[in-house]
Amino acid sequence: MTAEFTLNAEARSDLGKGASRRLRRNASLVPAVIYGGDKAPLSISLVAKDFAKLLENEAAFSHVLNLTVDGKKENVLIKALQRHPAKGFVLHADFIRVVAGQKLTAIVPLHFINEATSVGVKQKGGEVLHSLNEVEVSCLPKDLPEFIEVDFANVDLDQTVHLSNIKLPKGVELVALAHGSDLPVASVHLPRVRNEDESAAEGEGAAE
């Protein structure tokens, strides 16, 4: 998939926790590191407000980003973010280099479709319970999807959709499945309150 996100950064040589705190406090910058590929790790800083704006778009987490560091371009993926525990802003970011023709792993969001009209919901009064909202994929950079759809149109009451049931884009594999773990993604069940009401009614009937 062609990168559609761009960000400017500067290389930094002033390293360590103290230097990172000064960056955030004095210059409204976010310290970060780029690693991977056949190059040495590179410490950089990003303008906090520009990075925060980019992160407002969910797709930024599963897109190859065009990162320009002191005029030199790097294709990267967001690998990890460290956020302030109370305020939520980014304290530090890790990026991994993307090499054309070399497989990568990335976290991709799941988009659930046809939930309200699924057999188990519309016809039988169930509700959808999500176990996963994102998955780790393995693919070439050109095949990286922005998101993966999970279609609930034919899911019945008390049915569970597993990773193996998801229709994947061409060239994309699920890391968990490759390791033999067919995790549940979502299921359709009667609402808990309704189940409790029906159980109570059955109990009263038996008592009579």
Runs in which pLDDT lies below 50 for 5 or more consecutive residues are none
The overall pLDDT, averaged over residues, is 87
Task: Please estimate the helix content.
Answer: 10-25%
Give the number of helices. 5
**Strand line-up across the major sheet:** 1-3-2-6-5-4
- Number of distinct beta strands: 13
Quick overview of this protein structure:
The chain is α+β, with helices and mostly antiparallel strands and 208 residues long. The chain is 21% helix and 38% strand. Strands 1-3-2-6-5-4 form a six-stranded mixed β-barrel. It has a four-stranded mixed sheet with strand order 10-7-9-12.
Feature tags:
single chain, 208 residues, alpha+beta
Would you kindly provide a written description of the structure presented here, covering whatever features stand out?
β2 and β3 (42-47) form a beta hairpin. By secondary structure, the chain is α+β, with helices and mostly antiparallel strands. The strands form 3 sheets. The protein has a 6-stranded mixed beta barrel. The termini are far apart. Helices cover 21% and strands 38% of the residues.
